[in-house]
Write a structure and sequence with these properties.
Layout: H1 13-23, H2 31-35, H3 38-57, H4 61-84, H5 90-103, H6 106-109, H7 118-135, H8 151-164, H9 172-192, H10 195-216, H11 220-243, H12 254-267
Helix pairs in contact: 1-4, 3-4, 8-10, 9-10, 11-12
Amino acid sequence: MATDPIYDTPDGLPRLLEIMRRLRDPETGCPWDVEQTFETIAPYTIEEAYEVADAIQRDDMDDMEAELGDLLLQTVYQTQIGAEKGLFDFHSVAARIGAKMIDRHPHVFGTESNAKSAEQQTRDWEAQKAAERARRGETRVLDGVAMGLPGMTRAVKLQKRMARVGFDWTDVADVLAKVVEEAGELAEAKATGDPDKLEDEFGDLMFVMANLARHLGVDPETALRRTNAKVTRRFNAIEDALAARGERPEDKTLAELDALWDAAKADER
């Protein structure tokens, strides 16, 4: 019985690229894979990036290895579609990012001194990115901030851009005061019963909260993921405690659930 030549392809990236080429073959490939486009794969790319972040947060290195593979697959997938359309391929994408990394690190790969602080290197990096945006015709301060970013992440990036030209608070106390102000406006919007106004004011409050996170040196997405994990852990503890007594959460009062929550919280200290 003949052996599929895929098993003779060198392991690692060469085999992965060949696997994807085979999956996308219009005659012999997988019907689902053949039907996919840049647009249909994009949500999976975002999801896999978050799953890498989740593995890091859980400090699960075995899972991280698997999730990095899933994320790599997304690049392989998109570049295979690009190759089929004659736009780019994996190798041209890798060459382009390689050239960019060399260009952006003249203190490592060029003649500049590498005796720079991390802060100075960050400023140099941002200056180079600004020059690249200008070459692409992106001349406005907020041009080029990706629309597809999570809302809080995009808010922070927009705020950082505005801060570079001086549009920023200098004291975190001013940001905290703005949080209180926006919370008050949200309460007023709720009283009107206008759903459009309510959504608008809620968005304003979230934007200011993202700004507060930036001023505190906190990544808001990471902070929220951490709280989501904490809530999940504590509520699971509530369910476990009730299950041990043959009971369920829906059969308990809010006061009883609160007491179990406090117990779960105390157990973590």
